[in-house]
Amino acid sequence: MENQITTKALIDIIASERGNFFDKEYADVLIQNINKNNGYQDGQFQTYGKFTMTAKAGAKALKAAMNKIGQKAWDAAVKKVEKNFGTSLVVFHWKSMNQVINVLSNSSTTITDALAGYLTKHGFNQI
User: Fold this and answer.
1) Is the CB of residue 77 less than 8 Å from the CB of residue 21?
2) DSSP assignment of 51-81, as one string?
3) Which residue has the higher pLDDT, 49 or 118?
4) Could you report the per-residue pLDDT of 79-94, keeping only the tens digit for each?
5) How many whole angstroms separate alpha carbon 48 and alpha carbon 2?
6) CA-to-CA distance for 98 and 85, rounded, in angstroms?
7) What would you report as the CA-atom Rg of the chain, rounded to the nearest whole angstrom?
8) Can you name the residues that pair with 45 across neighbouring β-strands?
9) What span, in angstroms and rounded, lies between the C-alpha atoms of 122 and 120?
10) How confident is the model at residue 5 (pLDDT cuts 50, 70, 90)?
């Protein structure tokens, strides 16, 4: 499929930004999880797993991950992904992600449904 980031590219981005992570060991955790196919399949992200996470639990996990990564490394990684795709992904910038986390924290649906609603509300097409 076009415009999908491979696990190798994702690992390369995480490894290249490791020095900017607040918790540098968390980069290794992310890479290990990717290598174990934990949450990924066939080189692409899964939108849900065996047990669908609620939006609140997903928001809590995402916020914890972002805090371990830090804004500098997060934004630098997003810029590399944007360069790879040749398009701006403003919704994934630090400020936008924190807005998404707030939406998820106040949602009682699945993380997939909450994100789809947020993205549709902010101009992305619903499939």
Assistant:
1) no
2) SPPBHHHHHHHHHHHHHHH-HHHHHHHHHHH
3) 118
4) 998 998 888 888 789 9
5) 21
6) 22
7) 14
8) 40
9) 5
10) low
**Residue 118 has which token pair?**
């947020």
Q: 7-17 vs 71-85: helix axis angle to the nearest 10?
A: 140
Is residue 14 exposed (0-12), middle (13-18) or buried (19+ Cβ within 10 Å)? Answer: buried
Spatial separation of the C-alpha atoms in residues 118 and 115, rounded to whole Å: 5
pLDDT band at 72 (very low <50, low <70, confident <90, very high): very high
The contacts found for 102-109 with CB under 8 angstroms, 24 or more apart, are 102/59, 103/55, 104/55, 104/56, 104/58, 104/59, 104/62, 105/55, 105/56, 105/59, 105/60, 107/55, 107/56, 107/59, 108/54, 108/55, 108/56, 109/54, 109/55
5 close to 68: Cβ distance less than 8 angstroms = no
Q: What is the pTM of this model?
A: 0.54
